Amino acid sequence: MSQSNTNDFIVIKAKEDGVSVIGLTRGTDTRFHHSEKLDRGEVMIAQFTEHTSAIKIRGKALIQSSHGEMETD
Ligand code: TRP
């Protein structure tokens, strides 16, 4: 994997209470390995790592990454 992939990080800002940021495992088995709850206004800065291949966000949030900015509905 190239360095730029592993160094990438995303910013998640919760727009309501109880937003979940869920990390999914890298490898043959794709499953939840971590769940973080954010309340309104809280920010999480997360990276894709050796252990984390995907991040699922549940609830209203603003997400910034190198791909741009988006909001969950
Ligand atoms: N220990 C996890 C890891 O290194 C922590 C983590 C990294 C994480 N990125 C995440 C957890 C994104 C949830 C969402 O992979």
UniProtKB/TrEMBL annotation:
<dbReference type="InterPro" id="IPR016031">
    <property type="entry name" value="Trp_RNA-bd_attenuator-like_dom"/>
</dbReference>
<keyword id="KW-0804">Transcription</keyword>
<protein>
    <recommendedName>
        <fullName>Transcription attenuation protein MtrB</fullName>
    </recommendedName>
</protein>
<dbReference type="InterPro" id="IPR023558">
    <property type="entry name" value="Trp_RNA-bd_attenuator_dom"/>
</dbReference>
<feature type="domain" description="Tryptophan RNA-binding attenuator protein">
    <location>
        <begin position="6"/>
        <end position="73"/>
    </location>
</feature>
<keyword id="KW-0694">RNA-binding</keyword>
<dbReference type="GO" id="GO:0006355">
    <property type="term" value="P:regulation of DNA-templated transcription"/>
</dbReference>
<comment type="function">
    <text>Required for transcription attenuation control in the Trp operon. This trans-acting factor seems to recognize a 10 bases nucleotide sequence in the Trp leader transcript causing transcription termination. Binds the leader RNA only in presence of L-tryptophan.</text>
</comment>
<comment type="subunit">
    <text>Oligomer of 11 identical subunits arranged in doughnut-like structure.</text>
</comment>
<dbReference type="GO" id="GO:0006353">
    <property type="term" value="P:DNA-templated transcription termination"/>
</dbReference>
<dbReference type="GO" id="GO:0003723">
    <property type="term" value="F:RNA binding"/>
</dbReference>
<comment type="similarity">
    <text>Belongs to the MtrB family.</text>
</comment>
<keyword id="KW-0805">Transcription regulation</keyword>
<dbReference type="Pfam" id="PF02081">
    <property type="entry name" value="TrpBP"/>
</dbReference>
<dbReference type="InterPro" id="IPR000824">
    <property type="entry name" value="MtrB"/>
</dbReference>
